[in-house]
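Section 5.1 Outputs to date
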Amino acid sequence: MEVQETRVQTDRVLTIPNILSMARLAGVPLFLWLILRPEFGGPNSDGWALLVLMLSGVSDYLDGKLARRWNQISNLGRLLDPAADRLYILSTLVGLTWREILPWWLTAALLAREGMLLVMVAILRRHGYPPPQVNFLGKAATFNLMYAFPLLLLSDGTGWLSSLAEVFGWAFAGWGTTLYWWAGILYVVQVRRLVKADTAAD
């Protein structure tokens, strides 16, 4: 994460990048419902859940790229994009942990990092700073996790494909979790420096 101000280029709400981000947000409850259907006596819908997750990844790439290319970076977009990322991660954690595909300790580690980030955001706002912008390290962590989750979901089966998905899924999960915490720790360091600078200025 980086504590910096991104130049807003439009105040419009209904831009193509914002519509893509809104569609990603709308897909969160659909994805969670699909992944949990077997737990409530419904048919297995993992294939549809994987499709929703893959489409969210494509839209995540497109909304940022199009916003920059078409000069449509907006305040709303700056809120929607990271919100959609975090909600997909949260819903996937809930679904995969509920189905015992993910161990509780991994879920706890990722949720603890999110809790730490919320505290840092509150501190930033108290000192008059905007929410953080996602940097390359944070995006890399999110992409690793977004690759890990569908692979781990695919591993909940039998055959060589499931075995292969399990190996690569856990590899991406390990890298993603490590990068997620690394980005979080760097963010804490940046917030601490800002707070110390404000205190010294007072």
